[in-house]
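User: Hey, my collaborator sent me this sequence without any context and asked if I could get a structure. I don't really work with proteins. Can you help?
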Amino acid sequence: MRIQAGTQRKEVHDISCGKALRERLLGQAGTPDPPPATLIAQITDEIARHCGHRLLKCRRIATGWTVAQAVQAAHDLIAVEGSGPVGLSERSWKDWESGVLPSPDYQDLLCRLLATHPVALGFAHDYSPPAADDAPLGVADSDDETFPTGPAARTRAGSPTFTEVEETKRRDALKLAGLALATPAAAAQILDQAAAEAAEFTRQAEASALGSGTLDHLDLAVTEFNHAYSLKPPAAVFDSLLDYRRKVDALLKGRHTHRQERELLAFAGWMSELLAWLAHDLGDARTGLAFATDAFVHAQQAGHGQLCAWAMDAAASINLYEQRPDRARQAALKGLTEAPRDHPLAVRLHAQEARAAAADGDAKGFTTAYQAAQDTYRHLPPRTPSRFGMNVLPLADYALTSYPATSCVWLGQADAARRHAEHALATYESAPAASRSPSREAIARIDLALAHAQLGDPDDAVALGHQALGSDRVVDSVLGRAGDLTAYLTRRHPHSPAVEGLREKLAAAKNTHPAAPAALPGE
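Assistant: No problem. I've predicted the 3D structure and written it out in structure-token form, which is a compact way to encode the shape of the chain:
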């Protein structure tokens, strides 16, 4: 992680101080709407000098934005322009304001968003001679905002982060001095050499060992692996996907551009996220959690907040099935710090938090988190996003129907569990054939069976258990819940032949489990 240079400040004021300075200076200027760039620069300089914040934060306060508003404005700018870096989150912005140096692409985005340049945001040095002492701080000589000359716009020379930049500036200064004193013929030769150097700089920036279609191929491969997840046996998909994941790792160690590196990091993250679910389906929690962590780390390196959240969604589910509700809850909360607030993934993560609270016996925590999931769902936009060509809204629907049924079973609320499970099962059975998920239906049947068992109806519970284990897609999550059902029935009815028959069917299913087809991501 690179940290941007900057002087140490003895005292940092509360943000309310900067807001008050902004209002005062706007009032003195006649409260123009919108404020001109030169005035914003002057307010930024005054906040930096008086309040001690870093320049990016000062610029945001001077503009009048909260962090959330700034991030939304950045996303709006990307949407209007049709391209730009992805994954910008409030966490990323706060990191930058605390001193983390953004990547070049994000620096460019921030400069365009805030209508300024890297020096004014503390991302680079200003080596121009100081202006006169009585010059207005942060205000350029012309009407257009260029490089401010006030001390708040400068970063400390000699910082390790910018050593190479300083040396380059010194060499350039020597070259320019020689150019000024050279004859016309010599000057022309110097300029020709500079043009050749510029071309070489460009070539180096674009130099890459990746073939022209490599990234397109990886995009297609990740899409096809996600589609194959619900159609092919998990072991086969796992082996093929792991081979691709190794290839991406090799590409990351080769030569590529910075932009290509971010894309490769994102592809690596997406592959590891899917490998986490596949390992979970195959009953290997340790491998699943290792890949979930790997997905999160690569997503962070790529600046892809949404992928970070997907990785934590996988970690939450895996930890729940491993009976680690505290870790599941932590993973869900960690994912919520990265997930877009108006995305179905946020609904799912709130529901994950609710399910983890229920598994921990925390009824109040379940109610609070589940209410948050419902509130988030109600405020989703009319058009929800897709993931590799597939609508992700059903994952939120699933979380709001199946998770409360499971949670009420764990909390011993049998009547509520029965109602939720019946609603979930009816929802899944009424879905179009192309979007039916036998594994989800199986889990809903097991929840309903457990509710009947808790209500003293073992015959219906056993019948539902047989239906669940007869599913076309019996993965580890189904087997785990079926184990909960048979264990509960065995304790309540230790000598029942019907219960013993269900236990035998479960044992047979476990023997054939590795070859079974996978469920959809997110069980």
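In plain terms: Confidence is low (pLDDT under 50) at residues 1-9, 132-167, 515-520. You can pass these tokens on to your collaborator as they are.
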